[in-house]
Amino acid sequence: MILKYPFVTEKAMMTLESQNKLQFLVRKEASKPQIKREIEKFFGHDVTTVKTLMTTKGHKKAIVSFADQKAAEEILSRLGIM
Fold first, then answer.
1. Looking at the domain that runs over 20-77, which CATH code has it been given?
2. Burial of 25 (0-12, 13-18, 19+ CB in 10 A)
3. Where are the domains of the chain?
4. d(Cα 35, Cα 48) in Å, to the nearest integer?
5. The whole model's pTM is what?
6. Residue 81 — pLDDT band, cuts 50, 70, 90?
């Protein structure tokens, strides 16, 4: 399992609303293609880009963009977050 959990903060929610992007904490060993495949497999939406970064606490965070404009909101509602 590459994805740990969605990263939901006030800033992440603003990015969701303005740019249709979700943020996930992922395993440190995960590559961008692996993250893309796992998100497409679990949630059934096409991913356009995956950007990764290391947080100051040493966690790896993936910022994911979707082709469908409503995909990010639908995924969070399915997870019971929004």
1. 3.30.70.330
2. middle
3. 20-77
4. 12
5. 0.90
6. confident
